[in-house]
Amino acid sequence: MNASPHDSDAVPTSGRPNIASGSGRRDFLAGMAGIAGAAGLLAAARDSVAGDLSFMNNVPDPLLAEEELPTFRFALEKSEGRTQRGGVAKEATVKQLPISKGIAGVSMRLEPGSMRELHWHATAAEWAFVVGGRVRTTVVDPQGRSETNDFRPGDIWYFPRGHGHMLQCLGNEPCFFILVFDNGYFSEFGTFSVSDWIGHVPQELLAKNFRVPAATFEAFPRQEVYFAKGAVPPEPAAQPLQGLNPPPLTHRHSLLSQSPLHTFAGGREWRVEAKDFPISQTITGVVLELEAAALRELHWHPNADEWHYLLSGRVRVTLFGSRGRYREETLDAGDVGYIPQGYGHSIENVGSDTARILIAFNSGEYETIDLSQLLAAQPADVLATNFGRPAAAFNAFPKSDVFISGD
Known about the structure:
Layout: H1 28-32, H2 38-47, E1 73-74, E2 82-84, E3 87-92, E4 104-110, E5 114-120, E6 126-132, E7 134-140, E8 146-151, E9 155-159, E10 164-170, E11 175-181, E12 192-193, H3 194-198, H4 203-210, E13 227-229, E14 252-254, E15 262-264, E16 267-272, E17 284-290, E18 295-300, E19 306-312, E20 314-320, E21 326-332, E22 336-339, E23 344-349, E24 355-361, E25 369-370, H5 371-376, H6 380-387, E26 404-405
Antiparallel strand pairs: 1-22, 2-3, 3-4, 4-11, 5-10, 5-12, 5-13, 6-9, 6-11, 7-8, 7-10, 9-14, 15-16, 16-17, 17-24, 18-23, 18-25, 18-26, 19-22, 19-24, 20-21, 20-23
């Protein structure tokens, strides 16, 4: 099974770069339409046959080219969203948070017996983290292989772009999960739902398609169901109508049941990359815990945008955007934050309790450069010249990467 959604994005033109590849750059061509001189830049990219083609990322987003940095916080759980019988969904896309062009997110709650109906996403892969309750999913790939999985809090799933799936609450308690999509322009409310499609196709065509009488479809919904309400699903799950035909790569990974990847005096980090969860080629996930007053130090990510959902606590996030531009935002539980690729930032717990942050990156490979690491990798004379201070002033600086600073 080819698990990477990027494969279908390739531009199979000899001598031309794949300008659609790379995390978070899906909307590059559309965005360039509004930037002066874009035609010349695109022509240069097409003619380029050598060098680092990621220079295309350096064409500025007009929003990030302003004299002041824009807000990078959105109060997701305080937004209205979509509420109907069976569930609630709230989203953060570029419409709600204009800076978040590379990643969109959704908060979704389902009642017992409720289902987010069969659907697919034409322009984004889906990564999810279960916060509470239990969830069942089914997913079908282009080869007709399917998988049914049950999830508990701390588990994650990943569905490549375009793969059909459904989400269902298990048991007698509601469930709650966060969905992350590797395209900031994607809207959960613009997905391709099976009831919406079948409801608009003539019954005679449906009869021919499914080889059943046209009258079979007379009582089918005529509009999108979105949240479907039914009985609490059986456990264990029943077999598919076609029988078992599992894919080679699972769509399920248990993150928080494992020990943290890193433990520090001030916090802990759980992380899952594509090397740990091979089907998740476009998203890396992190759960970061910070004790009171602890700091995820000043750093940047060379290869990905960063998306936050604050699960608990209160944090202050800083953002550095070059040219003296600096901004701080305070996130409370249920808020979303966004850091563009390559922008310097930090996360500090400013509350009295432990803060837990769900973080997603739109790359299957995690990369970071911490400021303490950058300085520790330099000779003292380089730092002295750079900052105009005596070399001895840097003797007390860390000699290795700090990552999380805390008592």
